[in-house]
Each structure stands twice: as C-alpha cells, then as structure tokens.
Amino acid sequence: MDLHFEELLNKVTDFIKSEAKTETIVGEPFDLGEFKCVPVIKVGMGFGSGGGEGIEGKSRKGEGAGAGAGIGIQPIGFLVTKGDEISFLEAGKTHGLAAAFEKVPDLIERLVKERNRHEEVVA
C-alpha cells in the first residue's frame, strides 16, 4: 500500500506555516479613539492519519487511507497603547461593575440558602 506519507507531511507542514504565523497570532492593529489596539489569539492545531489493507477470499484485496487536520482559534486579549503606555487586556475576563453583575446570581442563591437554613433553625 502506497500512502505517500512524505507528500502528506509536506502538505500539512505548508498548512501550518501558512496558518500559524505571527500575523495570525497577533492580529492587525486598529484604532479605537485615542487607543491603538492589537488583538492577540491562541492557535491550536491537530493532525492525524491512518491506513490499512485487507484481503477477502483469495482474489479481493482492499486498501484505504485517511488524514485530517483541525485548527482552533481563541481570542485571548488585546495589546492596547495610548501614548507611551502599553497594557494587555484579557478577553473573556470581566472587570469592575460588569464582574459584580456576573456574581449577582451566585450571591442571591447564597442568600436564599442562608435564609432557608436560618428559618429551619428558628422553627
């Protein structure tokens, strides 16, 4: 069975070279008011291949091969500059008032549990 692994490996290597480069990881800068922002992402890749052959009876022979690759892209934050100052803002993490509002459901649940527990003790 001739799987052409070297040819397949070359194609995968070319794919990785074209997709996982600095321009992909660190995106194109853009302006937001007086700030210059540069998106930063995380890239993950996977690759797998396999093949096999078999014989049925005395005269039938079969063979097969397959390969696959996948890529995942996730934003992790932004490099932000204003004048001489540079900072990194993480994506997916909330700060300030937005973070407080995200915690409200947990706080309410705790208060209800504590109230119920207190009522059981008193009763």
From TrEMBL:
Protein name, entry field: Spore germination protein GerW family protein
A Pfam family per the record: Spore_YtfJ
InterPro entries associated with the record: Spore_YtfJ (IPR014229)
